Amino acid sequence: MANVTLEHVTKRYEDVVAVDDMNLDIRDGEFVCLVGPSGCGKSTTMETIAGLTKPTEGTITIGDRDVTKLPPKDRGVAMVFQNIALFPHMDVYDNISFGLRLRDYDKEEIDRRVERASDIVQLEGMLDRMPEEMSGGQRQRVAIARAIVREPDVFLMDEPLANLDAKLRVHMRTELQRLHKQLDTTIIYVTHDQAEAMTMSDRIAVINSGELQQIDPPLVCYNEPTNRFVAGFIGSPSMNMVDGELTPDGVKTDTFEIALAPESLSGVWDGDAVTLGIRPEDVYPTEVADELAHPTAPIEVSTDVLEPMGDEIFVYLKLDGAEADDTMEGERSSNSLLMSVDPDSDIAEDDRISVVLDASKIHLFDADSGDAIAHGVVDTAAPAADSAVAESEGGD
Amino acid sequence: MVGTVALVYFGGMTVLFFFWIYGIVSFGLDLKNKIIPGARQYLRGRRKLKEKREREQEQEEREQQLY
What we know:
The complex is a heterodimer.
Chain A lengths: L3 E10 L2 E11 L4 E5 L6 H9 L6 E6 L2 E2 L10 E4 L11 H11 L4 H14 L15 H13 L5 E5 L7 H18 L2 E6 L2 H7 L2 E6 L2 E6 L1 H6 L4 H6 L6 E8 L2 E4 L3 E3 L13 E6 L4 E3 L13 E10 L4 E7 L8 E2 L2 E2 L2 E6 L10 E6 L5 E4 L5 E4 L7 H13 L1
Parallel strand pairs in A: 3-8, 3-9, 6-7, 7-8
Antiparallel strand pairs in A: 1-2, 1-4, 4-5, 9-10, 11-12, 11-14, 12-13, 14-22, 15-21, 16-17, 16-21, 17-20, 18-19, 22-23
Chain B lengths: L1 H63 L3
């Protein structure tokens, strides 16, 4: 087991900066996911840790050793690749023991480690099989066992589940969590699938354009994203983003206004352009506004498309008075909202309804820099909020 | 008669030497514009393929160190 530290790591390919001044401190025994869109530099970051790529600048430390210039074999790491990369002419035993044989371990030690690893990944009785006789999930387990037998300080996993089907991926996710619990070894896991990152990791490192955006536990990234990119990337479906402007009373968008407590708006000024973010599960039909501690004033919308998911329905909402907007924010126009409602809701397509937002779940971002200004602001105009304030004042 | 023979002789020699010189010039131009660049490209391609093969082999060896 070992901690992994990246200090000012930069990787340049001629004009392209794949990793830009990356600073990471991964603790001993921690499961950290590097997550980001395709081409963001997460795999390059992992390759620099593995020793497959030399960083242009910066240092990499594993445990108390500076490994920046060491070859992969001397770094005490084992890696599981996306393409599994088993030798097709070797059986499972030979594939798993390949790394040990390369390092001249004696036969007894190899047998002991292979047996233990195959127990952990549940491959008992399959050691004499050829890779072609195995399913995708079993092959991936062989690749993981091949990494386990090395007993490395750090496991590196580069999208190991990307080639598996959706059901198997969910199953393997649980297996990997179990494996981490059992081995208690540092695991660095690269994925572009934010659901994988959310469910498995102790901390998520969100990367965009080679730059680290945020490294925090999954729920912190979800509830307190440091910027608009993290807010949009973490969470499925993604956060609603509506452009607006700060006024002395709150935030004014093209179609509605939100009154906000002034203390939540420190550091920004009247007239500043902001982006209001709200997750689909924090948008409610007005009928349930009473159940919320801090609902906003009602917003008039018309329903567009409904997506029944079984346990919930996603309702696409068109904001009344919004101009037709060709600019897409992820999968949606910035002049629309997505709401998640119960499956027994009687909302239909092309209905005119009003909705409220949970003001305590609203995020505000600077429109220029994208940096977060506030998470959870309270609507001072809403009756429930008034009463809440009155209660707290009375209590004082 | 002598005039005709001379005319045919000099005419024939002119045609012959014209195509002889034309052939040499064409070959020279082909050499400059097609044959030498083609050969260079072929050698460059082989060198690049060799370098690519070596790079891939090195990468594979490095990856195998992580198995």
